[in-house]
Amino acid sequence: MSDLKRQLEQPGAESASYFDAVIVGAGFAGLYMLHRLRELGLAVRVYEAGSGVGGTWFWNRYPGARCDVESLDYSYSFSEQLQQEWKWTERYPSQPEILRYLNHVADRFDLRRDIQLETRVTEAVLNEATGRWELRTDTGDRVSAKFCIMATGCLSVAKVPDIKGLESFQGTWYHTGRWPQEGVDFTGQRVGVIGTGSSGIQCIPVLAEQASRLVVFQRTPSFSVPACNAPLSPEVEQYKKANYVEYRRKVRESSFGADYPCNDKSALQVTREQRQLEYETRWRNGGPSFLLAFADLITNKDANETAVQFVHSKIRELVHDPAVAEALMPTDHALGTKRLCVDNNYYATFNRKNVTLVDIKKTPIEEITPKGLRTQGAEYELDSIVFATGFDAMTGALLNIDIRGKAGQTLKEKWGEGPRTYLGLMTAGFPNFFTITGPGSPSVLSNMIVSIEQHVEWIGDCINYLRGHAFDQIEATVEAEEAWVAHVNLVANYTLFPTANSWFLGANIPGKPRVFMPYIGGVGAYRKKCEDVAAKNYEGFAFSSSSTPTERVAATGT
Ligand code: N01
To answer: What is the C-alpha to C-alpha distance for residues 55 and 46, in angstroms, rounded to an integer?
Structure first.
């Protein structure tokens, strides 16, 4: 068994710790990666910026935060005992319940002893002489690791817009993605929410119940479908748990990593009545499978328009004031090309007397003032402002770290015109550097847990292969990477996705290259590709042995 962990204390020099692998982040990805590498006998250190485990679910504690993938699907499958013993209480898990689950996982698998909390990795530099990654943290740690694995999450860098006057605001402001751990009581307050994506749409109905007045500043309306959340029925739980093995197999081979009913018909091949019935049934069942009502909703503009019209008609039904209803109807993008939102009572919230919708496309925000917020034409006095303004998605967390590969090339330079990866797992020039659910993989277009497990297992197997073959390094080849990037773009361009100004394309961050980042080819097809690559001795990857003989011996366990 290899165990390279050791402390080097040199008088007068900083001390450095040596590990087989460093994992950055202790959310769903980091926790399972640690467990997997420990099973392989590696010495691992996890660094986590938060003061607890949980990643996304540690930070996003805003009122109403909930996952829109069902509980029994949004959970690990790697341990039969774990999936049988954990009891979810609702159809869709709330943030507190997911965080409890992840803490349970950390305890159950004794993971905490290798996790260093409240420590942010600031630098990861490849030492080409030793073939090892040298990392530094904001607490002054120096570590050396053969493998550097980024489990930094796709939506972890919160984006607060640059609005004039924010520093003068005398109330308190929050970002949904950096919510205070102790929670916030808005009872009796005048609250402004900026942003109406998934986070805004989830918190607005809950805030409306607490606040004396809620002002929603909407720049672009989103499409939202009802969640139809409910307590988890014992029958459903029993059935799924009894059939978990087969069920999990099915979702791994599916398009989105969930058991959504797919319709293989075109929306344009059926009668108007049949179409309405299909949409209505899915609307009543709730959840994101609305997008799969017909096979061509994300590839054909006319087909998509039928879904748009259906949702518009629902908004008209649900919102009493026709002008407010009109303002809530998205008209600038096709349904699903920005992340489809899933809500609990969102549209009806605008019928409340204490809720006001402000269309800031028509009357833009001019500034934040000491007392509130001024738009063109009106001033709103506020005690609190909630920014539900999203994230520097997919690449933000990686590029915030000073990552340097071969010849000192930074990841920022390499990805200057958009992320370039082979399979979203590795990038050429950065050997032994892995990204879990990196750009170029299905990630955010799938049930994240299914995609995380697949990546963690692939990376674990790959490291094991290296050891078994006495290789020290693996690296994506430039040719394989170029072909994969071209394929990712080709598939994206076959859909309507690139037509919307979404965070999938980096369009929410000024100056970010406009590149469609996730892979839309489907979870099942992608998994098959990764398996084929591994079966062909990691086709498209190059191997080398640049470490010292001692390390090579240790690495092969001989
Ligand atoms: O962020 P977003 P989010 N002035 O980027 C607006 C996942 N998630 O945190 O569209 C005014 O979607 C912006 O307006 P516009 C999920 O993948 C999942 O809501 O740029 N407004 C938009 O309305 C999701 O997609 C769950 O014109 C500004 C909003 O802020 C992803 O996280 C729950 C602005 C940002 O929407 C991100 O969702 C929550 C400005 N300067 C999140 N800048 C579930 O599982 C931005 N906006 C259910």
So the answer is: 12
